[in-house]
Write the structure tokens for this entry.
Amino acid sequence: MIVMMIGRPARTSIALAATALTASLALTACGGSSSAKGTDGKLNVVASFYPMEFLAQQIGRDHVSVTDLTAPGVEPHDLELTAKQVAGVQKADAIVYLKGLQPTVDQAVDQSGSKHKIDATAASPLVDHHLDGDTEEADGHKHEGPAGDPHIWLDPSRYAAIAKSVGDGFAKADPAHADDYKKNTDELVTELTALDQDFRNGLKDTKTKTFVTSHAAFGYLADHYGLTQVAINGVDPESDPTPARLAEVQKAAKDNGVTTIFFETLVSPKLADTVAKDLGLKTAVLDPLEGVKDPSKDDYLSVMKQNLANLQAALNANATS
């Protein structure tokens, strides 16, 4: 698979050190950072952003109280933790996060005394994607792992592996409900396995295997289903492509019979609209699921099914599912 991308220097965090100090002082005043279950008897879980929150909720259900550090509609890369959030991480019974995506979260987790730190990358390591020789390897935004692309949850099979890790972690943190966590994990893995099969069936017979997106978030999805992602921007969705990069994207779109330029929900569609207009193409949403604007209406499974439908339409698929 070829992933073509370009980017800009990374944004850096300058606020966490002072925030962590404030939180540490607050915790000291309250008598320390050790924590048992909350007063409601539930496991106190902190999730770093939506894909981790979804797993925690689905697997923990009534036995957990989950706090998502990234509010709906907030781009996870931009997250800066407040003193209250850092204190929450330090007091958590269990933490579910993806190491390398959010530096402020990583630092808070490192400082936390929690015995149950569940890192998604430990269950599904980041891997490198093959890159076009004329483009940069990443957007300069630093993520741990060789690829610089942390979006492992967009491959349902990898997400299922992470789900199993979360289930195991909750069982260790709360042995009294281990059987329930296993049952809930097995049910979720069954749903993710079915979703994976839907993608395989729906994308196996397409007129083109190339799709163009505004954000290089779909490398794992493309690798898993034999597609080629052409990204206008790099892993950083707010990076600015050069005129040369735009020319490369236009050529790739014409050469591969691309019909649609994909944009995402948490970033302005202006760039995708401009490229689509220049080429006389359509635009549509391909959601990287870094967050869900309205969790009361959508979740990981429903958004991924819509992603599949949008890919099928763009790639002129003769779906069997």
